[in-house]
Structure formats: C-alpha cells, structure tokens
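Hi P.,

Sorry for the delay on this. The queue was packed all week, but I finally got your sequence through. Input first:
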Amino acid sequence: MAGVLNTEIWKNWEKSGKQEFIKFCIPLLKDESKSPLFNKHGKTTNIISYINELIDKGIQGIIKTDQVSATLRELVALHPDIPSIILDVLNLADAVTSQIDHEESRERSNFCTIVKDCEKFLSDKLLKERLEIDTLQEVGVLKNGTFYSKFIKVKTKLYYKQRKFNLFREECEGFSKLVTELNSEFTENTNSKDLIGIVQSLIGCFNLDPNRVLDIILESFENKPKDSKIFIPLINSYMNDSRIISEVLSTKFGFLRNNEQEIPQSLYILTAQLLQHKIIQLDDIYYWLLPEDKTMIADSEKSLKDAKEYVRKLQIISLNNKEKEDAPEENDNDSDSYEGNQKLGLCEALLLIGDWENAQTLIKRLPERYSVNYEPIASALCGLLHYIIEPLYSEYGIVSSKIPRTPLAPYEGNIKPPQAHTFLELKDIALPMFFMLGASLRYDTILLCKVVRLAKAALSACGIDNPKCSAPSGNSIYYDILSLIDITILPSLSYLDCNCCIAEDIWTLLKLYPYQIRYCLYSRWKNETYSLYPDLLRKRADSEKQIKNIMKRVSKENVKPVGRLIGKLTHCSPGFLFDYVLLQIQVYNNLIAPVVDSLKYLTNLSYDVLGFCLIESLANAEKKRVKHDSTSISSWLQSLSSFSGAVYKKYSIELSGLLQFVANQLKAQKSLDLLILKEVVQKMAGVDAAEDLTMDQLNALAGGELLKSEAGYFSQIRNTKKSSLRLKEAMAENDLAVALCLLMAQQNYCVVYRETQKNSHLKLVGKLSDQCQDTLVQFGTFLGSTMSVDEYVNKLPSIQSMLTDYHIPLEVAFFLARPMFNHAINQKYDQIRKLDPGYKKMSSSIKNQKYCEAVTEVMEPVCSSLTLLHPPRVWEDVSAQFLATFWSLTMYDLYIPEEVYQQVINKTKMQAQACMESGAKSKKEQERYQTLAEKLQDEKKKQTEHVEKIFYRLKQEKDNWFLSKSVKTAKNETITRFLQLCIFPRCTFTQIDAVYCAKFVHTIHLLKTPNFSTLLFYDRLFCDVTYSITSCTENEAMRYGRFLFAMLETVMRWHRSKEVFEKECANYPGFVTKYRKNNQHADNLDNVDYENYRHVCHKWHYKLAKAMVTCLESKEYVQIRNSLIILIKIIPHFPVLIKLSQFIEKRIEKVRDEEKNNRQDLFTLSSSYLGLLKQKNSSGQMMKEADFHVPLDKEKGGKGHESRIEGANKHNGEVKDDSSKEKKSRQSSDDTRSSSKPQIISVDITGSSNNKTEKQIEEQGKEKRRSERNEEKEREKEKRRERREEKANAKDEKYEKQYSRSQDERYIEKLSPKDESRYTNEQMDRYYDDRGGGHYYRSDIRDDRDLLASGNGSIGRSQEAEPDRDSKRRKVDSSSKNSKHEERKSNSDLFPEKTEKRERSTKPKDKRDKMSEEEKEMRKERKLGRKRDRLDEVQLEMKRRREEDKASKMVSPNRGANGEMVEPSPIHIREKHHRTREISPYQRDRSHERSEPRDKHRRSSENKRR
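Then the structure:
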C-alpha cells in the first residue's frame, strides 16, 4: 500500500489528499458491468486495500469521521458493488475495535460514528446482514431490545435439530478446509490417493463426522461431474458400502422433496455415475425414489383410457344444434405428470452419461412405453444412438461428401458407450435401443433418416436390392430390420405432420421387401400400433374427423384442393384414412372418379398402403358378397372392383397382391372376386369384355389386330400402353398369368356344380358362370395381345398338358392354345419353304401345298391327343383331324371383312384430308393417318393370302372329315357328334365364336364336304331349341342368339332368292335327300328343289316359334329370360310370318303383364322386344304365308280338290268301296316293286319310321280274325244304318259348320292361353305331324329319316305317285296300338277350345234327346268299327310296301351320290279321315276338310251295316 498511496495524501487530506485518493479509485471503478475486485487479466485489484486504509485512518482519528463518510458516499456512487465491499471492511474493523480496552475507546466511538453515518447511504438490509447484532444495537440501527432474545431462540432450535453433527467437538474450519480441498481445480498430476489422505487427515485433525464428510464428497462430485476420474476412486477408497451411499443419496432426494424444491439434474447425474461405476446398485437406490410403480401404472392406464374417451366423444353426433359442442379439448398434462418423477430423472441421467445397461433395466421396470414418452429421456436416448451409429453412418449413410456435417461431441468419463463399426455390431448394440425407443424416435427426425439409410445399406450388404431376392440365411440383420420398421419407424412416422420426405425415404427401404411382408407391417401399423399410444389415438381421431369433412366436399370441380388435403393427411397416417375413403366409395359409387383423381398427391408409401387397404376391404369376411335377394353380386364389391381398376391404371401401385388374392380365391373355388380381375384387365389393358357387339364390330374382330383396335370396340381405349405393361410385368414376376388362366378355366367348369350345392339362386349361378367365362376370355385376349409369341408359348402349357393334366375343357384349351398353333405353323411353314432354293419365286399353289405340309406336321400331335379324350365309337362318325381343324381356326382364317376394312380406310383418309386442310400443326396427325391407312391395306392383303391358304388346306382335308363306314351313321350320328363336340360348346363361348360356328357350317357346305348333310344339320338345329335355350346362362343366351341369327341369315338368304339357292345349294351334297352306300354322286332328282326348301324353312320357323312358346309359358325365370334374349337377337330374321308374329306378340304381352310388378328384368326385356316387334310389323317386313312358300293345295291340281269335295258328298258305302279297291290295286304293285328295290337310305325330316316289321306281322294275324267277325256282323249293321242315317247327317252338318272356320282362327285358337294349358313337346310334335310338319329328332327314331317330305311334305312329289303310302306310314308310326279315342283325346288336348265347343254343342242335345238303348248300342258299334278300320289300314300298308320293294327292283331307277337306288317320292293324296303331313297348318281354304272325320265315321258305320 505504501507503494501506491503515500503518506502525503493523508496529511494533506483536506487540501489535495482527497482528490488524489479519488483519482486512484476511479480507474478501478469505471466499468460498472464488471466486479472492481478483478482486473481484465483476472487478477485482484487494490480497491479493498484503499477502502480499508481510508476507514482505518478515520478510526485512528487521522481523518475526521465526517470526511471519511463523505468520501465513502462518493465511492458508492461510482460502482454498485462498493457498498458490499465497504460493509465487508466495516465487519473486519468491528472485529478489531471490539477487542480494544476501554482506555482506547475513542477508536470504537469513531467506528460507531462512521457506521452511523454510513447508514444514510447504505442499505439497512445490507447492514443487518453483514454486521453483528451487538454492533447494530450499539450503533442504534436495531432499536428493539427483544431482537436478540429471538435470535438466541432460533439459533438454539437450529442447533438442537442437527443431532447428527457433534457441534461441540467439530469445528467449521475442518469442513471449510475439506470443501476447499475437494472443490479446488484438479490438475493432471492430482492423484486420488493423495486426496484421500488429505480427507482422512482433516477428519482426524478436526474430528469430522464421516457421514457428513461423505455428503461433502458427494456434493463436491455433484458440482464437478467431469472429474469422475478423481472422485470415483476417492469414494471407493473412502466408503465401499453401497448401502450407506444409497442412504445418503436418498436423504438428499427426500430433503429436496420435503421442501418442495426441484431436484437438480446434477444430483441425477451424480447418482447415474455412481450406478455406472457400480459404486451403488440400482436396487439399493430404486426403492428410495418416488413415485411408486403402481402410481405410474395407474397414470399410464388413465392416459390410455382418457384417449379412448376422447375418441368416443369425437364420434358422437349431436342431433340438437343447441347442444352441439366443439371437439373436446385435452390439456397437455404430460409435463405435469413427469415433473417430480425421480425415476424418470435418473433414467435420463443414465442415458446422458451413456449407461445403457442400467437405463434399460430401469426402463423395463417402468410401465411399457411410459418412460420413453418423456421427451427428455427420448432425446437423451437419441443422442446416445447418434454417438453409437456415427462410425457406421459415416461409412455407409452419407449421401454426399460435399455436404458439411456437424461433428458430434464425444462422451467424457471413464466408461464410454461402445460404438458400432459393422452391421452385426449395429444389430447387437443399437437395435435394442431403437426397439426400446419405439415411437419416440419422432423427437429426432435426423436420427430417423439415419437409421433408415443404414437399414438400406445393411440390406444391400446382404444382397437385397429388390423384392424378389430371398432372405439371407445365418446371422443376418434382415429380420431385425423388419422389427425396427414395425416397432420404431412406422409408429414414429405416424406422429409427424405432413413430412412426405421422411415417408419417401421409408418407402425406399420398404420396397426392398416383398409385398407379403409389407402388407403384414401395414396391418400391424393400422390395426395395432395406434391402440398402444394414447397420443396416437387422439391424433387418429382428429385425422378421421378431418377426412370426414374432406370427403363431404369431394367432387369433380374441386379435385385439386381436396387432393392436396388428402395428401397432407395421408403422408404420415395413410391406413385408417384409406379405410374411410374406401367405405365411402362402397356406399357412393359416384365418388370413384373424383377420388381417383384426387389421389395424385400421395407418396409412394401411401399408394402401397392403399393397395393393402383395398385388398383388406375386398377380403372382409364379415361382409356379404351377394345382395339380400341372393341373385346378384353386392354393390360394395362392384364399387371396389371398379375403383381397383381405375386406381391401378392411373397410379403405379404394385399389382402382385391383388392378383394373388384373386388367385387364392379361385383356389378356394370362390369366383365372385373374378369381378376384380375383370375390372383391372379392362381398365389397365383396354380389353373390354363387352358382350352386346354389333355385326360391324364382330366383322371387324374377324380382321387383323389393327382393324380390331380401330373398329372392333365401342370406344377406343387410349393410354393403356404403360398400364398394360405394368400388369403384364406383375403377372410375370409372380408367375400368375398361367395360374390364373388355368384356375379360371377349372372354375368355369365347376362353378355351376359348386354353387348349386350351396343352394345358390339360379340367377346368381348364371352370373357367376358368365363372369368366369367373360373374365377368362378377356384375360386370354390380354395375354395374347401383350405377350410376344415366344413368351406366350414358353409360359403356357401345351394343349396336351391342358387337356390331360389340368383337365381344362376343350373349348378353353383351344382358345388358349390357338396363338401357339398359329406360331408353330408359321415357323414350320417358313422352315419348309426356305428348304426350297427358289422359295422367293415360288407360286401360290406350291406355297399353299407347303403350308398344308406344315399344318399336318404341327397338328398331328394335337389330333393324337384328341383321340384319347373320347371313346373309339366317337371317331367312327367324325375324325380327330376335323375336330382339330374346327377348334384351331378362327374367323380371321375363314372370312375377310372387306367392307369394314374399306370403311375404316376411307374414314382414315378423310381424317388425313381434314388434317391437311387444317394447317401445318396437324402435319404429324396427317402422317399418322396416312400410315394407318397403309398399314390397314397391308393387313388386308396379308389376311387375304392367309385365307387363301386356309381354304386350300380345308379342301385337302375335307374328304377325311366325315367317315363313310356306315351311311346311316354318316347322316345321323355325324351331325350329332358335330353338334355335341363342336357347335354347341363353341357357339356359346364368345360372340365371335358364335359367328364363326355359323361361318364354318356354311364353309363346309360350300366346300361340298362328303357325307355331310347341310339340310339335316339345319333341321336338327332348328327343330327343337328348347333344351339349348334352357341350359344357357344370360351371356350364353346372347351368344346362342347371335349364332341362330347368323344361321337364320344364311337360311333366309337362300329362301329369298331362287338364283342364290340354285347357285349355292343346288347339286351340293349338303342338300341331297338320299345317300347311297357307294360313293357315287347323286343326280338332280336326289336334291331338294327351291320350293321344297321353302317348305322346310316354313317348318323351321314354326318349330322355333313352338320352342319359344314353350319357354315363355314355362314360368321359369331362366327359360323366359333366355328366350327373350334370343328373340331380341334374331328379330331381323324371325318372325317373318304375320301369324307367328301375332301369336308371339300375345305371349310376350302376357309375360310383360305378369312380370310388371314381379321380376323387373323380365318386364324390361319383354317390353323391349315388344317395341322391336311392333316396329318390325309397322315397317312392312312381315310376309304372309303365301309369300313365304307356295301352299300345298295351290300346287295340286283342281282334280284333287274336286275329288275331295266329291268324296265328301258321296255315299259312305261307295267311298269305302272305292278306297278298298284302290288299296288292293296298290298292294299288288307294291309287292312287285319291293322285290327289286335296292338299298336306299333316305333322310326324312317329317320323322316317319320304316322299321315296323314286328308290329306288322302281329297285326296281320289279328286282321284275319277280325275280318271273319266283321262279315257276320255286317248284315245286322246294314239294317240299323238306314234308320239312323238322317240323325247322323244332321249332326255332321253342325260339325262341318264348326270346323269350317278360317285357318287363322284355328291357328290362334290352337295356341291360345285361355285355359292356361301348357303343351308338352310330344303333343306339339304330334300336332305339327298331323298338320304337315316334321319334328325334332328323338333318339329312338333318328336313324332313318326321309327328306322326301318337308314342312309341307312336298319334297320329291314330282316322282312316281303313290298317293297313300306316306299317309299310311304315318298312321303306323303315330297310331299303332292306339285307339281312335286316344287320337281324339290328344287332339282335344291340342285344341282345347275346339273340344270345349264340341262338347257344348253335343251334350245339351244328347240330354234333350235322352238317348235310347239303340242309340247307345250304335255308338259302341261305331267305335269298334273305327278300330277295325285301323287294323285294315295296317294290313294293307304292309302288303303295299312289299309290292313296292318288288317293283323297285324290277325298274331301273336313278342312282344317287353313293351308287344306291333312289326311291321315287310318291304324290300324297288325302285319304280317309287322316290329314296328311304335307298340308300346311296355315292354309285358308280348307274348311271342307273338317267334314272328313265325320265322313269317315259315316263310311265306317255304313260298312258295318253292310
């Protein structure tokens, strides 16, 4: 001090000393922000010395006390810390002056004066804090005398409470020295052994309490946690008892808790370090920490319960607007629940110092996910994970080295957590921490990105770079990453808001796993994860509320804004949001289009989750997949299927899962879900499964691929190239193409039986079958159009394998195999053609021959495989080559749609012209149209050459198609096999196949195929279609109708023009009526002429009408629906007769009226058909019967007509005599003819049979016995006849009036529904036989039929006349072993009104006359007479046939195609009461024929009387 302040200052204080003193102090006090005790270098200043010396001079009296006080006042004004320094100096001066004797009390009084003066500018509080109580009282600061006594009491109380400290023996200096030693700065040379020695010496020197010393050591360690290297050995050396240390720590925790003070983090760090270094055990300290476990468990359960209640309240809909409240607000009590939780604080501290082992143990003791939900704990764990994965991430996870990175701070302390340098170390060290962290990884998105990148790198190191890679074996991280995604990554993503970057990063990891694993993860994420976290439950409820509001506003006009909102919501929590969107789509199918458009803002992860949610919704077992009436597929399934097709087409979503789902459903024999595949293929590939195509479209489908795409579909489906390629790749990746084809084919075969076993509705069964069939065709078409031929051949099994191994139906197998056949044939053709050195100059005939060789070589194995499918007797009728040819060809092979080609080419040229006129901008379009036109021309030319080769092939093969082992089989069984094995399976397969069948039949007719009867084929087809109609589903009925339309088109084309008929049918083997056993050609007399063909057409139209009526009156839904569908299809060609049209119209009106309020689909169909029929009637397209064909009575001469009239007016006996003479004369001629008759087989469309020999022999014996009895009774009858003749004549006149009505009335009356009578096939056939038409072939009479009599029985009547031959043959066929009474009964069934009127006209008269005994006896005699007459006719018929056979052998007749003798056709003359088959049922002027039954009765009774 002497060096700084000289003595002159104090001497000259009043003059200049004071100013110099202030000058010295000012530099030290000029910075008010810093303490005046230290300079800028950290060293102490002299300000305390200056103030101390100033006060000391004042106490000594060198300077006056008032001047000292004034100077101190000035210093106080210079710096705020000066009062504290002044009081510290005064406190020291107080201690010094208090020890001075009384003699020198002047210094004490000066001190008191200075203190009293300082009271004026120093704080009173500060004076009381720093100075002793006695001094304060002496100075006068404390004026209350009781203050000291209160102080004594408080101090005494404090001393008595501190019982653990021996205050009498301890001295504060020892603790002060201990604190000083422990809190001093440690250097590198500081040793814990030296420090423990100091501690022990202080304890011994100052007699310190060891427990308090331990407490001071722990507090020192708490204040200096970084010096663990010193304190840990010190504690271990001082106190090696973990229990005592734990008790000391628990005392600290308890003290702070009791005083409601916040526990500092340093205390948790201290405890954590002691645990880390194993000085104490967790069990020792855990039970001293609060709160208790059961309290935390209750808090966890309450939190979850509150979250569920929050969700429930959000789902409540208030109907009263007044009571409507906003969403419940939840207070954020998370921080409150975690405050004061000592266990969580300790856990955080353990993680901060890197002690994972103890932290994991502590976390497991707490409720699950309770501790990591605490953000500080989660952040501490994330920091630890950053440190652990840093070496691995630096090597594998850095995106670019150019991006700067912030280095991580290293851990300090003796024990550092281990770091992961390999992926296996990552699995062992870091992954358990991530699993424990769970969804709390959301607090550190950087760490989330790091772990995702490391997971991708780990999979790449295992060789996993795409979903197809198989899982590696051994100790791999493959499955651990799955657990990481499930437990940590996806739940963490759910907490984030609109973080699409993280979602995309996660998708790059997830896409390395196959879809099965991904879908499992999505299922757990959506259905389980949210229920584990209370915060996620609340977040889910809020998101659901938002998506509901968004879906209310979805429309076509606001797709973009709504799409953005949906995208933001689904970036992080897509699963349950898509569930609600799909639910809305199932209810409102009009949302499909706007929702699909609004999904364009989704991430790839969201798209993948959408695919999973879609499959999950489709696979929902709780929903009924059919409607409540069990007749159709549920609307929700239809909506989801349509949405699937649209969304998979528009966005790149993986298809494997959806396709596999459909395949699994097919394996389980469930075909309802084929609707999904149908919609997906239709939308993505543009392959439409449309059934109701126009003829122009069907003709276009017969062309090449380019023509099909331009004119074969209703709408040109564009932009399907990429989507169809994705669909193809999805099937190729999972080998589903062939599997789906085979499964659909097998399902199509068994769906009817499977569903009927379940008692499903027949309408539903039909729809399922149609759906299976349509989807199969659609799918096969897609494969054929998208796959290359080589791919198609390699993937699909051979035709032999499909037929034998997979048991695929024949039509499906050939449908799938046709592209393979064509490819193999073309390859073989090119090989054979190029073997010839001059193949480039080869003529077309040689090319065709080479093509046939290639076909033979390729199709030979196919024929061999077909032979094994059927028994040997089948191949006696048709050859396997014919079956292979029929099934391997298509419309492209038989028909060139030249008109459609020309239309499309002209349209394209017009479009090109329009583009040229529009300007330069359309130049590219013009070039495109011109190129398209050129391609169409080339395609047409290519198809023309191909069809030429096919027809050459058919001409080469036709002679081997139908075998001629048995001519009878050739003309009957051949047609049966052809229909069974070829026509019926294929005509109902697709619409183009239906047209193909008709075209193929026409083709083999034009080729003049041997042993094939075109006429018989048409007759078998048209004569009874009832069973075919009944067995069809709805779509099959449409195809069958299309087939009948095509067949009727050909039939009516021949019917309309005689020139066309003569050109295409005359002299063709298909229209030969007789077949000979040798292979000679028939002459013109064996062929059906034009008029006879028109009669046959008339019969076919009638048979079709009869079949339709049978179905319409059946009351069965399927029959009525199918018949209506077919009628709509064939309406251009049927009906064409006015009478048939009127009758069908009445039946349809009846159906419409009955189904108006019952089955609406039938009502709609019937109303539609009625409209079409009325339109056709009004357009004048109908014709009368006379225009359709020439009736029989007009063809016959007037002589026959007069003879019938004359026969009706003659006496009964005379007629009988004439007829008996005529019969005898014919018998003799027939006997001579039959002896020389050759073997001739005729085709009889009328259905008569010649094989009645056994019955004839029996009848001959009976006839002899009857004739003898008749002669005896003849005389008695003659007498009675005269008396009753007048009454009989009167009755006959009445019957003539009844039966002389017009044929129109009788026709309508015959089929009128007045009595609601339903006619069986047998009754209808019998009626048509009686009226002059044929019937359908039944199995027992199909063998020998004659084409000599058509619908009007006039075929071949230009040949030798045998008037009663066919009429008697029909009597034998239809009336043998039947009485006349049975005939009348059947007639009464067919004509209910006629029978009813006859009964009404006869019964009253009988009652009035009251018949006598004689009249009754007369009736009995008439009945017996009619029976005898029938036996006479049988006997005469047998004799006539024998004579005919003899006579035919003697005469040299014409020879037919097979070298057999042609049987001349007789001219049919009406005889007796039998109506001939040749008479049309629609002729008008035949009322006189109704009297013939009565004439017959009169003749028979007259003979009896004679």
